[in-house]
UniProtKB/TrEMBL annotation:
Phylogenetic classification of the source organism: Bacteria, Candidatus Kaiseribacteriota
A Pfam family hit: zf-dskA_traR
Family matches, as Gene3D superfamilies: DksA, coiled-coil domain (1.20.120.910)
InterPro entries linked: Znf_DskA_TraR
Organism of provenance: Candidatus Kaiserbacteria bacterium RIFCSPLOWO2_01_FULL_51_21
Protein name: Zinc finger DksA/TraR C4-type domain-containing protein
């Protein structure tokens, strides 16, 4: 299977995700696969509890978005690693080749369509 255009897609997505991640989070220095939301700005004049609450709420929203981005980022990164190792496009459950159309739709897929529906 020719995977070069899938590799391009994955690399473009990885770059985009990295940009989004760095805009709302920072990489954990001791674990590059882990990202943390940028801490809320607590240098607000203490007298305004509303602003503090807003800031905490914003931080929680950011943490949630970051988590989703991080999951996708690691999926894409894993797919690129499998391309390097030559194990790309193999279902991680049954070991059979993943349908090319599934990889077109999601180049970071780790299961074939059958096991997507029945992840047991
Ligand atoms: Zn499978």
């Amino acid at each position: 299977m020719d995977t070069s255009h899938l590799k391009n897609k994955l690399e473009a997505e990885l770059q985009k995700l990295e940009g989004e991640l760095t805009s709302i989070g920072e990489r954990n220095p001791s674990n590059p696969a882990d990202w943390e939301a940028i801490a809320p700005d607590m240098n607000i004049p203490a007298a305004d509890p509303n602003e503090v609450a807003d800031s905490i709420e914003e931080y929680e929203t950011r943490s949630g978005e970051l988590k989703e981005l991080e999951i996708r980022y690691n999926e894409v990164k894993g797919a690129l690693e499998r391309l390097e190792k030559g194990t790309y496009g193999i279902c991680r459950i049954g070991g059979e080749p993943i349908e090319p159309e599934r990889l077109e739709a999601n180049p970071a897929a780790t299961t074939c369509m059958k096991h997507l529906e029945n992840p047991k």
